[in-house]
TrEMBL record, chain A:
The keyword Nucleotide-binding does not apply. This is DUF112 domain-containing protein. Residues 18-435 form the DUF112 domain. The keyword Membrane applies. The chain crosses the membrane at residues 17-38, 45-69, 75-96, 108-130, 136-160, 193-215, 317-340, 352-372, 384-402, 408-425, 432-449, 461-482, 521-541, 547-565, 619-642, 662-682. Pfam families: TctA. Keywords: Membrane, Transmembrane, Transmembrane helix. It comes from Nocardioides ganghwensis.
UniProtKB/TrEMBL annotation, chain B:
Belongs to the universal stress protein A family. Transmembrane segments: none annotated. It comes from the Bacteria. Gene3D superfamilies: HUPs. InterPro entries: Rossmann-like_a/b/a_fold, Universal_stress_UspA, UspA. This is Universal stress protein. Residues 54-119 form the UspA domain.
Length: 690, 123
């Protein structure tokens, strides 16, 4: 075991691997600085670049980026009060207050060092997980692996923030999308509607980039520009470094919470960071300074958000169950290299596992070091409005999705899924279960068939491992029941201490902004139709190929119907009760004067909200239309020509930048596109006229 | 000195408010309300003064920087250097006590000043 570890370290001494790691670290730091792009964005943007590389080099680059994204995302949170990624919003609470008191360097050095330690402890956790889990993983047969895939999707659905039914529905939608294409057991085509393109299945990169990447672009292009002046970088680095050493217990606790949150599917960096903050508050005796610049409010969460990414990798590589969205994409990448995560990786690719551990640890240290050196100059990047970054990101993401299959159809799928992702996001439906379901659909089916053929009847269900997983599966169901009960009976008490619903939590105002409106009811109805259609179509499949789609469609139909019923109930109760009289007992206790006052106060607010919705939707619709226009251009005139026309148009009309900037931007982007195919194994889509 | 109330718009919350008003009457201390229910908007001072006229002029509404209600109450109490925290308890079934944690319990354990727990009048 130690041999494998040190030979992996020796292989990292290879200059080409080190170069890839360095590129990954720099890219990860830059992506972390840009508001709105987190670990998901980092992997999504870099993944296409790695196609055609050796698996070691590709992993070094991706892990390097993933390890440091949460180191640099603090910069914008502390200096601007606008978090670089959702998980940095926690650091903002205390970090921004500290920076406004003229101690920006103290806050940043605390954050960088904690991030580094979080990454290192995460890497140690990953290392320890390998020998601990190895005998366990090797004892797994197909029934256990089948149960694990079910567990992965359902845990992701239940543990994701928000409504459990919505999470389940998203998980089933993802599973259904994963079933499109050729059935692994009978080699017949499912849900391909006779199209040759769909018979290959939908490409993972297109799905991930669409659901997360394009949806993110569309929802952020309309975001108001950052007008605040950043806080000056004052104070001393040294004070923060010394202070950090006194908070080492917080670092360890935060990191362990992060690893745990990472191991659980669907609990990503954001939730893990809030958990760490809640823990820091709960264990503190003196709570006076939290929210006003308490170092403990920075140290714990910052350690957690880096170790989450390492924790995510544990179930991904050892069991083949992605712990989060970035690792779901890594899993997809490994599968394209023919490396099957799970028991096989422990026996055959142990060196790769240790390479990941070393890369993670080295990147964490290097990332923190670079942050100390370059924060002053890099901080300016955080002020670039997203609308300006939009076209560049769009061109790169679409190009990335094209690399996997070389088909322009993938790009249309991606834009379509971008629309889906946007509505999932705005209606408060978690998207992580969707992607995890998509990735696990085929393994789930394969393990199920192995199980059904190797064991007669239901005897596999009595295997101890299966029973344990079944028990774990029941716990979240009970937990959601408990949540329900508490929702109806307890108003004053909420047993669970978490900071999630804190007043400062809604930094991302679009997330869930359409929940409870006609749009979210419409989404539920649409899902019902999709599942019903899938059920009907699956009737024509052969006995063997039919089982899985049937199961998914039936369960999905049930979830979607339940959700529709919930939506209708919410809407009916809202229309029955006029806006504003919601605090029912308030009127009785304080006299009727109070309730009418409340009523008049609330109404203009809802008015403004619906107005904002219309505005957001209009911008998103325009952005998706622009994406479609770009694709049409690319199909006609080729990718480069489309970029040269689309980018300046978008920059001048949507982002409203100066013409000079637009021209320079376009030329740089064009040059990058021209030189890419010579530097990397990348193909540009060809147009009809070329 | 001040008296902090973990306020909720429920019978236990009103009982806590009444107790706080009575407690603070002798020394004419400020009564600081903190909402102890997640997601509920804080009450208006004017409404409260109408309901408890004897405490008029002494009622304030404060907000902590923390999301968890019990943490917010303790934080405000510490910041204001409160003499006393008053909170209302509500009836729980034995199963309810077992399954659900309690904001009140955490305030009792975390607070650094005396805590007065009151129950609403039966019926």
């Amino acid at each position: 075991m130690t041999d494998a570890a040190f030979s992996a370290l020796a292989s990292l001494a290879d200059p080409s691997l080190l170069l890839m790691l360095a590129i990954g670290v720099v890219a990860g730091l830059v992506i972390g600085l840009i508001p709105g792009l987190g670990g998901t964005g980092a992997v999504a943007i870099l993944l296409p670049v790695t196609f055609g590389m050796e698996p070691e080099a590709a992993l070094a680059m991706l892990i390097g980026a993933l390890a440091v994204v949460h180191t640099s995302d603090t910069v914008a949170a502390v200096l601007l009060g606008a978090p670089g990624s959702a998980s940095a919003s926690v650091t903002m609470l205390d970090g921004y207050s500290m920076a406004r008191q003229g101690q920006a360097k103290r806050a940043l050095s605390l954050a960088f060092l904690s991030s580094m330690a979080g990454g290192l402890i995460g890497a140690v956790g990953l290392t320890l997980a390998i020998p601990l889990a190895r005998p366990l993983v090797l004892s797994f047969g197909s029934p256990e692996l089948f149960m694990l895939t079910i567990l992965g999707v359902s845990l992701a659905a239940v543990l994701s923030r928000g409504n459990v039914v919505k999470g389940l529905m998203a998980g089933f939608l993802g599973l259904l999308l994963g079933l499109v294409g050729t059935s692994p057991t009978t080699a017949e085509e499912r849900f391909s509607f006779g199209s040759l393109f769909l018979s290959d299945g939908v490409s993972l990169v297109a799905v991930a980039l669409g659901i997360f990447g394009l949806a993110e672009i569309a929802s952020r292009v309309g975001q108001r520009k950052v007008t605040e002046k950043p806080v000056e970088l004052t104070g001393g680095w040294g004070a923060g470094i010394r202070e950090w050493l006194t908070h080492w217990t917080q670092v360890v606790r935060g990191s362990l919470i992060g690893i745990w949150a990472g191991v659980l599917p669907g609990v990503g960096a954001t939730a893990g960071t809030w958990l760490a903050y809640g823990q820091a508050v709960a264990t503190a005796k003196d709570k006076r300074k939290f929210g006003k610049g308490d170092p403990r409010g920075i140290v714990g969460p910052e350690s957690a958000n880096n170790s989450v990414e390492a924790g995510d990798l544990i179930p991904t590589f050892l069991f083949g169950i992605p712990g989060g969205v970035p690792s779901a994409m890594l899993l997809g990448m490994l599968l394209t290299y023919g490396i099957q995560p799970g028991p096989a990786i422990v026996t055959e690719h142990l060196d790769l596992m240790y390479l990941i551990v070393w890369a993670f640890a080295i990147a964490s240290v290097a990332g923190a070091f670079l942050c100390f050196l370059a924060t002053g100059s890099l901080a300016r990047l955080t002020r670039v409005p997203f609308a300006v970054l939009g076209p560049g990101l769009l061109v790169i993401m679409l190009l990335g999705a094209f690399q996997e299959g070389g088909q322009i159809g993938d790009l249309w799928v991606m834009v379509l899924l971008g629309v889906v992702g946007f509505f999932l996001k705005t209606t408060g439906t978690p998207r992580a279960p969707f992607l995890i379901g998509f990735v696990l659909a085929i393994p789930m089916e394969r393990y199920y068939y192995l199980t059904a053929n190797l064991y007669d009847g239901a005897s596999w269900m009595l295997r101890p491992g299966v029973l344990v997983f079944a028990a774990v599966l029941v716990v979240p169901v009970l937990w959601s029941l408990v949540k329900k009960l508490r929702g109806t009976s307890g108003q004053a008490d909420d047993g669970h201490r978490d900071e999630h619903d804190g007043p400062e939590a809604d930094v991302d105002d679009l997330e869930g902004s359409l929940a409870g409106t006609a749009w979210s009811a419409g989404l539920a109805v649409l899902a019902v139709l999709v599942f019903a259609g899938a059920l009907w179509v699956s009737g024509s499949f052969s006995e063997e190929a039919r089982l899985m789609p049937r199961l998914v469609a039936t369960c999905g139909l049930a979830a979607a119907l339940l959700l529709t019923w919930q939506e209708v109930k919410v809407r009916r109760s809202r229309t029955a009760r006029p806006v504003g009289t919601a605090p029912g007992t308030a009127g009785e206790a304080l006299g009727t004067g109070g309730s009418t006052m409340v009523a008049t106060r609330v109404e203009p607010v809802t008015d403004k909200r619906t107005h904002a919705h219309a505005h957001d939707l209009r911008i998103a619709a325009r952005t998706f239309a622009a994406m479609a226009a770009f694709l049409v251009l690319a199909m006609v005139g080729g990718y480069l020509a489309a970029t040269l026309v689309f980018t300046p148009a978008f920059l001048l009309y949507a982002a409203r930048v100066r013409p000079r900037t637009a021209i320079a931007y376009t030329l740089v982007l064009g040059a990058v596109l021209l030189s890419l195919p010579t530097l990397l194994p990348v193909d540009l889509p060809l147009g009809l006229l070329q | 000195m001040t008296v902090v109330v973990a306020y909720a718009d429920t019978p236990p919350g009103h009982a806590a408010m009444a107790a706080a008003v009575a407690e603070s009457a002798r020394e004419q201390e400020a009564v600081v309300l903190v909402t102890a229910v997640r997601g509920e908007s804080p009450p208006e001072v004017a409404d409260l003064e109408r309901a408890w006229p004897e405490a008029a002029g002494r009622i304030e509404v404060a907000r902590g920087d923390l999301g968890d209600p019990s943490d917010a109450v303790v934080q405000v109490a510490q910041r204001r250097d409160a003499r006393l925290v008053v909170l209302g308890l509500r009836a729980r079934t034995p199963v309810g006590k077992l399954v659900f944690g309690s904001t009140a319990q955490r305030i009792l354990l975390d607070a650094t000043c005396p805590v007065l727990a009151v129950k609403p009048a039966p019926g």
